[in-house]
Amino acid sequence: MRFTLKKDKSGVVVVGVEGQLIVGNRQELKQKVLDALEDGSRKFVIDFSKTGYIDSSGLGVLVSLSKKIREQGGELRLAGLNADLQTLFELTKLDTLFAITRTAEEALAAF
Amino acid sequence: MKLDVPSDLGMVGDAVELVASHLPPGTLSPRRISFNLRTALAEALGNAIRYGTGEDPERVVRVQVELERDAVRIYVVDDGHGFDPTGLPDPTHPDNLEREYGRGLFVIRHLVDDVAFNEKGNGICLTLRAG
Protein backbone atom coordinates (compact mmCIF):
# COMPACT_ATOMS: atom_id res chain seq x y z
CA MET A 1 0.00 0.00 0.00
CA ARG A 2 1.27 3.45 -0.85
CA PHE A 3 0.14 6.83 -2.06
CA THR A 4 1.91 8.80 -4.77
CA LEU A 5 1.42 12.49 -5.48
CA LYS A 6 2.36 14.08 -8.79
CA LYS A 7 1.58 17.56 -10.06
CA ASP A 8 0.96 17.88 -13.79
CA LYS A 9 2.07 20.89 -15.84
CA SER A 10 -1.25 22.68 -15.33
CA GLY A 11 -1.00 22.32 -11.57
CA VAL A 12 -3.46 19.46 -11.03
CA VAL A 13 -2.36 17.09 -8.27
CA VAL A 14 -2.79 13.42 -9.23
CA VAL A 15 -2.86 11.07 -6.26
CA GLY A 16 -2.29 7.37 -6.93
CA VAL A 17 -3.65 4.80 -4.48
CA GLU A 18 -1.81 1.49 -4.70
CA GLY A 19 -3.32 -1.43 -2.78
CA GLN A 20 -6.21 -0.38 -0.62
CA LEU A 21 -7.78 2.67 0.97
CA ILE A 22 -9.10 1.56 4.34
CA VAL A 23 -9.44 2.47 7.99
CA GLY A 24 -5.75 1.80 8.64
CA ASN A 25 -4.28 4.19 6.05
CA ARG A 26 -6.98 6.77 5.30
CA GLN A 27 -5.39 9.39 7.56
CA GLU A 28 -2.16 9.22 5.56
CA LEU A 29 -4.02 9.99 2.34
CA LYS A 30 -6.02 12.74 4.03
CA GLN A 31 -2.90 14.42 5.37
CA LYS A 32 -1.07 14.29 2.03
CA VAL A 33 -4.00 15.92 0.22
CA LEU A 34 -4.56 18.52 2.95
CA ASP A 35 -0.86 19.41 2.85
CA ALA A 36 -1.09 19.99 -0.91
CA LEU A 37 -4.26 22.06 -0.39
CA GLU A 38 -2.50 24.17 2.19
CA ASP A 39 0.40 24.63 -0.23
CA GLY A 40 -2.00 26.20 -2.72
CA SER A 41 -3.13 23.30 -4.93
CA ARG A 42 -6.84 23.42 -5.74
CA LYS A 43 -7.41 20.75 -8.40
CA PHE A 44 -7.05 17.10 -7.47
CA VAL A 45 -7.51 13.74 -9.17
CA ILE A 46 -7.42 10.54 -7.14
CA ASP A 47 -6.46 7.65 -9.41
CA PHE A 48 -7.75 4.25 -8.27
CA SER A 49 -6.50 2.24 -11.25
CA LYS A 50 -4.09 0.36 -8.95
CA THR A 51 -6.52 0.01 -6.03
CA GLY A 52 -7.87 -3.35 -4.89
CA TYR A 53 -10.51 -2.31 -2.41
CA ILE A 54 -11.90 0.64 -0.45
CA ASP A 55 -13.80 0.36 2.82
CA SER A 56 -16.36 2.80 4.23
CA SER A 57 -13.65 4.71 6.11
CA GLY A 58 -11.89 5.22 2.80
CA LEU A 59 -15.13 6.42 1.23
CA GLY A 60 -15.67 8.72 4.21
CA VAL A 61 -12.27 10.33 3.84
CA LEU A 62 -12.99 11.04 0.16
CA VAL A 63 -16.26 12.74 1.15
CA SER A 64 -14.44 14.78 3.78
CA LEU A 65 -11.64 15.79 1.40
CA SER A 66 -14.08 16.73 -1.33
CA LYS A 67 -15.87 19.09 1.07
CA LYS A 68 -12.64 20.70 2.28
CA ILE A 69 -11.37 21.18 -1.28
CA ARG A 70 -14.69 22.69 -2.40
CA GLU A 71 -14.63 25.07 0.58
CA GLN A 72 -11.30 26.35 -0.74
CA GLY A 73 -12.74 26.84 -4.23
CA GLY A 74 -11.20 23.70 -5.65
CA GLU A 75 -12.39 20.40 -7.05
CA LEU A 76 -11.68 16.73 -6.45
CA ARG A 77 -12.23 14.21 -9.25
CA LEU A 78 -11.98 10.43 -9.08
CA ALA A 79 -10.68 8.14 -11.81
CA GLY A 80 -9.76 4.57 -12.66
CA LEU A 81 -12.40 2.71 -10.65
CA ASN A 82 -12.67 -0.97 -11.58
CA ALA A 83 -16.12 -2.56 -11.96
CA ASP A 84 -16.36 -3.58 -8.28
CA LEU A 85 -15.32 -0.15 -7.01
CA GLN A 86 -17.71 1.54 -9.43
CA THR A 87 -20.51 -0.64 -8.00
CA LEU A 88 -19.48 0.36 -4.47
CA PHE A 89 -19.81 4.05 -5.38
CA GLU A 90 -23.17 3.40 -7.03
CA LEU A 91 -24.71 1.45 -4.15
CA THR A 92 -23.62 4.11 -1.65
CA LYS A 93 -24.84 6.78 -4.12
CA LEU A 94 -21.46 8.49 -3.84
CA ASP A 95 -21.30 8.39 -7.63
CA THR A 96 -23.74 11.32 -7.43
CA LEU A 97 -21.34 13.30 -5.24
CA PHE A 98 -18.16 12.94 -7.29
CA ALA A 99 -17.12 13.58 -10.85
CA ILE A 100 -15.83 10.15 -11.88
CA THR A 101 -13.95 9.44 -15.09
CA ARG A 102 -12.61 6.24 -16.60
CA THR A 103 -8.98 7.35 -16.53
CA ALA A 104 -6.86 9.98 -14.81
CA GLU A 105 -6.07 11.44 -18.24
CA GLU A 106 -9.80 12.02 -18.86
CA ALA A 107 -10.12 13.68 -15.46
CA LEU A 108 -7.19 15.98 -16.24
CA ALA A 109 -8.65 16.88 -19.62
CA ALA A 110 -11.98 17.77 -17.98
CA PHE A 111 -10.49 20.46 -15.72
CA MET B 1 -8.46 -20.67 11.02
CA LYS B 2 -8.36 -18.51 14.15
CA LEU B 3 -6.65 -15.16 14.48
CA ASP B 4 -6.30 -12.68 17.34
CA VAL B 5 -5.92 -9.22 15.83
CA PRO B 6 -4.41 -6.50 18.04
CA SER B 7 -6.76 -3.57 18.60
CA ASP B 8 -4.84 -1.33 16.23
CA LEU B 9 -6.44 0.08 13.08
CA GLY B 10 -3.06 -0.14 11.37
CA MET B 11 -3.28 -3.94 11.59
CA VAL B 12 -6.53 -4.25 9.65
CA GLY B 13 -4.93 -4.45 6.20
CA ASP B 14 -2.42 -7.12 7.24
CA ALA B 15 -5.10 -9.18 9.01
CA VAL B 16 -7.34 -9.05 5.94
CA GLU B 17 -4.47 -10.17 3.69
CA LEU B 18 -3.61 -13.01 6.06
CA VAL B 19 -7.16 -14.37 6.01
CA ALA B 20 -7.64 -13.88 2.26
CA SER B 21 -4.32 -15.50 1.37
CA HIS B 22 -5.00 -18.59 3.49
CA LEU B 23 -8.37 -19.42 1.95
CA PRO B 24 -8.05 -22.55 -0.16
CA PRO B 25 -8.98 -22.03 -3.79
CA GLY B 26 -12.31 -23.26 -5.02
CA THR B 27 -15.03 -22.18 -2.62
CA LEU B 28 -15.12 -18.52 -3.55
CA SER B 29 -14.10 -17.02 -6.86
CA PRO B 30 -10.84 -15.03 -6.85
CA ARG B 31 -12.85 -11.89 -7.57
CA ARG B 32 -15.13 -12.43 -4.54
CA ILE B 33 -12.09 -13.00 -2.32
CA SER B 34 -10.27 -10.06 -3.83
CA PHE B 35 -13.11 -7.56 -3.35
CA ASN B 36 -16.16 -8.74 -1.38
CA LEU B 37 -14.36 -10.69 1.32
CA ARG B 38 -11.51 -8.21 1.78
CA THR B 39 -13.80 -5.17 1.93
CA ALA B 40 -16.37 -6.77 4.27
CA LEU B 41 -13.69 -8.13 6.62
CA ALA B 42 -11.90 -4.76 6.72
CA GLU B 43 -15.24 -3.15 7.64
CA ALA B 44 -15.98 -5.66 10.39
CA LEU B 45 -12.47 -5.45 11.84
CA GLY B 46 -12.42 -1.66 11.69
CA ASN B 47 -15.75 -1.44 13.52
CA ALA B 48 -14.68 -3.96 16.17
CA ILE B 49 -11.37 -2.18 16.82
CA ARG B 50 -12.75 1.33 16.79
CA TYR B 51 -16.05 0.84 18.62
CA GLY B 52 -15.68 -2.53 20.36
CA THR B 53 -12.20 -2.38 21.86
CA GLY B 54 -11.67 1.38 21.65
CA GLU B 55 -8.29 0.96 19.92
CA ASP B 56 -6.87 -0.28 23.21
CA PRO B 57 -3.59 -2.02 22.29
CA GLU B 58 -3.95 -4.37 25.25
CA ARG B 59 -7.10 -5.88 23.76
CA VAL B 60 -7.65 -8.09 20.74
CA VAL B 61 -10.38 -8.82 18.23
CA ARG B 62 -10.98 -12.50 17.53
CA VAL B 63 -11.43 -13.70 13.96
CA GLN B 64 -12.53 -17.23 13.16
CA VAL B 65 -12.94 -18.57 9.64
CA GLU B 66 -15.04 -21.66 8.98
CA LEU B 67 -14.92 -23.33 5.59
CA GLU B 68 -17.92 -25.28 4.40
CA ARG B 69 -18.38 -27.07 1.11
CA ASP B 70 -20.38 -24.21 -0.37
CA ALA B 71 -19.69 -21.24 1.91
CA VAL B 72 -17.15 -19.36 3.97
CA ARG B 73 -18.21 -17.99 7.35
CA ILE B 74 -16.10 -15.37 9.11
CA TYR B 75 -16.78 -14.51 12.75
CA VAL B 76 -15.38 -11.24 14.12
CA VAL B 77 -15.85 -10.84 17.87
CA ASP B 78 -14.65 -8.14 20.23
CA ASP B 79 -14.88 -7.91 24.02
CA GLY B 80 -16.84 -4.66 24.02
CA HIS B 81 -20.38 -3.91 25.13
CA GLY B 82 -21.87 -4.56 21.72
CA PHE B 83 -24.23 -2.39 19.72
CA ASP B 84 -27.73 -2.49 18.28
CA PRO B 85 -27.44 -2.97 14.51
CA THR B 86 -31.11 -2.10 13.93
CA GLY B 87 -32.34 1.40 13.21
CA LEU B 88 -29.13 2.78 11.73
CA PRO B 89 -29.69 5.80 9.46
CA ASP B 90 -29.71 5.18 5.72
CA PRO B 91 -26.34 6.48 4.45
CA THR B 92 -27.78 6.96 0.96
CA HIS B 93 -30.44 9.43 2.14
CA PRO B 94 -29.64 12.87 0.71
CA ASP B 95 -29.28 14.29 4.24
CA ASN B 96 -26.60 11.70 5.05
CA LEU B 97 -24.72 11.53 1.78
CA GLU B 98 -22.01 14.00 2.81
CA ARG B 99 -21.41 12.41 6.21
CA GLU B 100 -17.96 10.95 6.71
CA TYR B 101 -19.17 7.98 8.80
CA GLY B 102 -22.11 5.58 8.88
CA ARG B 103 -21.67 3.42 5.76
CA GLY B 104 -19.88 0.39 7.24
CA LEU B 105 -22.75 -1.97 7.94
CA PHE B 106 -24.57 -0.84 4.81
CA VAL B 107 -21.53 -1.79 2.73
CA ILE B 108 -21.12 -5.15 4.49
CA ARG B 109 -24.77 -6.07 3.87
CA HIS B 110 -24.30 -5.47 0.14
CA LEU B 111 -21.06 -7.41 -0.19
CA VAL B 112 -21.82 -10.68 1.61
CA ASP B 113 -24.69 -13.15 1.32
CA ASP B 114 -25.68 -13.10 4.97
CA VAL B 115 -24.89 -11.01 8.05
CA ALA B 116 -25.73 -12.16 11.57
CA PHE B 117 -24.97 -10.71 15.00
CA ASN B 118 -24.70 -12.46 18.34
CA GLU B 119 -27.18 -11.55 21.06
CA LYS B 120 -24.84 -9.12 22.82
CA GLY B 121 -24.06 -7.30 19.58
CA ASN B 122 -20.30 -7.64 19.93
CA GLY B 123 -19.90 -10.35 17.32
CA ILE B 124 -20.71 -10.46 13.63
CA CYS B 125 -20.80 -13.43 11.27
CA LEU B 126 -20.22 -12.80 7.57
CA THR B 127 -21.30 -15.56 5.21
CA LEU B 128 -20.11 -15.68 1.60
CA ARG B 129 -21.57 -18.49 -0.45
CA ALA B 130 -19.87 -20.24 -3.34
CA GLY B 131 -20.13 -18.69 -6.75
How would you describe this structure in keywords?
heterodimer; A: 111 residues; alpha/beta; Transcription Regulator spoIIAA; 6-stranded mixed sheet; 4 helices; 6 strands; globular; B: 131 residues; alpha+beta; Heat Shock Protein 90; 5-stranded antiparallel sheet; 3 helices
Quick take:
Chain A is an alpha/beta fold and 111 residues long.
Account of the 3D structure:
The complex is a heterodimer of chains A (111) and B (131). Chain A is an alpha/beta fold and 111 residues long. Chain A has a single domain (2-110), classed as STAS domain (Transcription Regulator spoIIAA), CATH 3.30.750. Helices cover 41% and strands 29% of the residues of chain A. Chain A has four helices and six strands, in the order ββαββαβαβα. Chain A has helices at 26-38, 56-71, 83-91, 104-110, and strands spanning 2-7, 13-21, 43-47, 51-54, 75-79, 99-101. In chain A, strands 1, 2, 3, 4, 5 and 6 form a six-stranded mixed beta sheet that branches. In chain A, helix 1 packs parallel to helix 2. Chain A is globular. The mean pLDDT of chain A is 96. With 131 residues, chain B is of the alpha+beta class. Chain B has a single domain (2-129), classed as Histidine kinase-like ATPase, C-terminal domain (Heat Shock Protein 90, 2-Layer Sandwich). Chain B is 31% helix and 24% strand. In chain B, strands 1-2-3-5-4 form a five-stranded antiparallel beta sheet, with helices on one face. In chain B, helix 1 packs antiparallel against helix 2 and helix 2 packs antiparallel against helix 3. The longest helix of chain B has 23 residues, at 30-52. Chain B is globular, with a radius of gyration of 14 Å. The mean pLDDT of chain B is 95.
Order of helices and strands of chain B: EHHEEHEE
The CATH C-level class name of chain A? Alpha Beta
Major β-sheet annotation of chain A: 6 strands, mixed
CATH topology value of chain A: Transcription Regulator spoIIAA
Name the poorly predicted regions of chain A.
Answer: none
Q: Name the CATH class of chain B.
A: Alpha Beta
For the biggest β-sheet of chain B, the strand order reads 1-2-3-5-4
- The fourth-level CATH homologous superfamily of chain B is Histidine kinase-like ATPase, C-terminal domain
Q: Helical element count of chain A? A: 4
- And the CATH topology of chain B? Heat Shock Protein 90
Total number of strands of chain B: 5
- Largest sheet: number of strands, sense, barrel closure of chain B: 5 strands, antiparallel
